[in-house]
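Q: What residues go here?
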């Protein structure tokens, strides 16, 4: 796992295809492709109901991982993204995501 660090003066930081996020309120999520043309952030905040939730609204859906994160950041009602993590594989990302579920 690598922590993605965004710096305004650098433009060489590259997001991978497998990205996890932590929001300022501690919510853990992953950016997942939900259709042929859309990505969305899915969160694991509902461990008590044994279900994941969609974070944000349809306006936060993007055409790519980067577009989804940018739309999230532009949404004024959304909880801010605290950390972004890039993973080497889908399996690694999903393991990190499921490890964050508190039962």
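A:
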């Amino acid at each position: 796992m690598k922590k993605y660090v965004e710096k305004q003066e650098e433009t060489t930081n590259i997001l991978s295809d497998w990205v996890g996020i932590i929001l300022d309120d501690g919510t853990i999520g992953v950016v997942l492709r939900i259709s042929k043309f859309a990505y969305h952030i899915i969160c694991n905040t509902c461990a008590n109901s044994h279900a994941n939730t969609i974070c944000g609204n349809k306006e936060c859906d993007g055409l790519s991982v980067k577009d989804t994160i940018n739309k999230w950041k532009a949404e004024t009602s959304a909880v801010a993204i605290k950390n972004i993590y890039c993973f080497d594989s889908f399996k690694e990302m999903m393991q990190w995501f499921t490890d964050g579920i508190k039962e």
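A: Context that may help when evaluating the design: The chain has one domain: 2-6+16-99. The first helix runs from residue 65 to 74.
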